[in-house]
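Collaborator request, handled under Task 6.
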Amino acid sequence: MRDFRMVDDPAHPRLTGGRKKLAVAVRALILALLVAVASGLSPYLRMDHRAVVFVADRSASVGEEERLAGWIGEALVAKGDSDRAAVVSFGLNASVERTLSVDETDVFSLRTEANDSFSNIAGGLQLGSGLLGEGGKIVLLSDGEENVGDLLRQGELLKNRGIAVDVVALPKRELRDAAVESLRVPADLNAGEKFSYEITVSSTFAGEAELRLYEENTEKFRSVVALETGENRFAFQDVAETPGLHRYRAEIYAAGDERGENNANYAFSRVDGLPRVLIVEGEEGTSGNMAGALEASLIPYDILLPEQLPAELADYARYDSIVLNNVPATRIAEAPMMHLGAAVRDYGIGLVMAGGSDSYGLGGYYKTEVERALPVYMDLKGKRQMPSLGLILVIDKSGSMDGGKLELAKEAALRTVELLREDDTVGVIAFDSSPWWVQEPVKLTDRDAVASAIQGIRPDGGTEIYTAVSSALNRMLEVEAQRKHIILLTDGQSAGNGSYSALTDTMNDNGITMSTVAVGNGADTALLERLAGDANGRYYFTNDQSTIPSIFSRETTLMSRTYIVEDRFVPRLGRAGDWASAFAGGVPAVDAYVATTAKETADAVLLTPMGDPLLARWQYGSGRSVAWTSDLKGEWAGEWTGWGRFPDVFAQWVKWTFPQFNGAPYDVEADWQGGEGSVTIRETTASAGSATELNAVVTGPDGERTELTPLPVAPGEYAGGLPLSGPGVYMMQIGKNGESGGTTSGFVIPYAPEYRLTEGGGEDKLRRLAELTGGRLLDAAEPGEAFAGERIAHRRTIDIDRALLVAALLLWLLDIAVRRVSLPWGRVSAWLRERLPFGRGTVAGGAGPAAADAALARLQERKSRSRASRFGGAGTGASGAPASNGSAPQPSAAKPSAAGSATSGPAASPPPEPEAPASAAASGIAGKSKKPSPRTEPERTPDRRTPPQAPAPDNPAAEEDAMSRLLAAKRRNRR
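Structure tokens returned to the collaborator:
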């Protein structure tokens, strides 16, 4: 049977000795590192420190922020090296001035913005406690005069968390101050009824002051009163005269008063009586026909110019209807325009518009709040063929246009693009020191692309008008359109001069017109007015930049004179409803009107031959509106104003727009705490319990509209919360059961509660807070006491996962090197042992030179045995056992000679036996002695394939050479 044994693969030799041990140790260490990472091993350090969060009150009642910052800075200087400190400041909202850290600070200051109109101590404590994740304490610096939140309730939460609050009671700032605490008037009055104003004034001093009382902006009383320290009450008698919802204002003026924020207070009252109408006329003295019709129906009225429209929504509540008589939108500022729409939509006030050359689309009402309130659209929805228009907008984008002007100019350009049709051509030039084509003249097939280009205009540079107008004119000459128009807008003066007359002459020769818009007093009004006149256009000057979009809309509409239809006709009856009886006997003829488009849900009462609405009406939100597209001054509809039934007909239009409800008024009270307000609505005795659900619309002083659904809290009493932007007059429309319409009421937020004169009591609250949480009352003169107290012992965890993973990666690379890289590892190990402190002078298996010699001898013996095995029995005795160390191998007892006969004589030596074949050595047969053949074999001729024969045992040089060749062969096999 053949003997099979496992041998090493020369290409992948097995690890032996020290390399094997090193490889196993490296892999074991890698595995241990990975197990440590997976198990979440986290060492920690035990540390002791103090953690203090300073919470500083920055409300108006405390003031003196520099004193607060100085006190905190002195306290920070006294902290230990390992102590941590943070700083939080608060007014209405709290903010972090310094995070919890050990950083040293030479000079400390409060840098964040704080709303000092409120004092939210609870909010400051809550934010400060959030910084103490590992425990600590809070040092509160405040006067305790809170008006938002509940500091004692927050103290209960801090007590449960084990956070103590040390208190530094700051004195409340003493000012010479007089404040109007309240103004009270009856909520409901009848015309001619006597009533009293009750005014409460609080003062910190005694002396004289002047008390004034206003109804809207009309002064009613002015009186010098004597103030005493504390609360003062005053009463004045008056008579309710004008019907409507009125706003009253009381003001106090005293010498040396150090705070003016609390010098006024407000109140509302509704006076029942005859309804009142406001007429706004575009041209002074043209409203006689309307005024006569209202007087015939005993309806009182007021007449104003558009520039005199009130800027506050509350002032519109005194009227039941508003009539716009040929008023251009370019003369109505942004706030009144918004209030006109809100008055109709939210508060049920009526609106009537009478036409003329400056009304509807020709007046620039496209996409305004008034257009939304009226029953007609300002543009013609593709009903007739209109001449094609080529329009180029030349817009100043210099640096002076920044701050809102350019944004409104872009809004004007966008409205212009929306008014134009796809067949029209539009281009936009923005200029500063040089012109820039924002949009080359192009047909409006892609409105979005043109709008996007307009939105990209940014302000920068100077002003150069001539080159911009010249560029616009040159491109306009290439445009093919029936009407060509240029609009120039600027707020400055041109840096250069050119031949403007040559430009306007070219415009006139080619049928091109140009209108100009001067914004502000800095514009070159003389130049712009002359250019508009020479180019057969219109000149506009405005100090109110909010009218710019209306100017552009008006100009775009005026370029299509088709909007004015001049053709005598007799109107035909449409959906007249209850007005049909007024027109049963026929109606007069009309000579002209402004073309509009009736809205989908509107009633077109009278129609023109072309199907345009002449008289239309509809319901808009809580109110109603009427549109008459001809004029009422007698120019276009002279037969109508001279018609005997006109006063009754016009009065019927106006009366139809009056508020359509008779609900009893409500008592409304409001409270303001920061950005949130709470409103309480109480029904009167007559209407208590009549409504199962209330809905309300609240409009603030900035025009922001909020819908509110108050919830019942008691019989006839409802409450709800809503965001309030700040002090001012708030209008409220209250309806029942989700129905439109209702009662107009209002409430006033006079001033922030921080400015009220209170009796104090804040220091007592602070003392109770310290007792509740286990804190102390600190002396304001000893800032260093803030860091007195016990230290906090805690463990600081060290994250070593990253380090362990990096070590495992490096060891993995070492493992690859040990197993795969062929290096003289013995010499490397010896070199390391010689240089490392723990391995110096030692060798594996022993210590010192003697151990090294013994190890070398054993290595030499293993090499000899390996060599003998390879050369067929060399190094074994007669019995096959290995020869003793250092003795020469003995020959066989009988060996055939080369000639086939035995040799005799002591001097004769047997010829060397050939080395065993490599296959025998590989199979493990080498090393066993073969039996001699009984017959004599012929001598074999050696060839080059015969293995090298073993050197004679007594020849050391030959033996060393054979060993060198063997080692070289092993290295080649490994490679």
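The cover message to the collaborator said: "The longest strand covers residues 194-203. The chain has a mean pLDDT of 81. Please let us know whether this matches your experimental observations."
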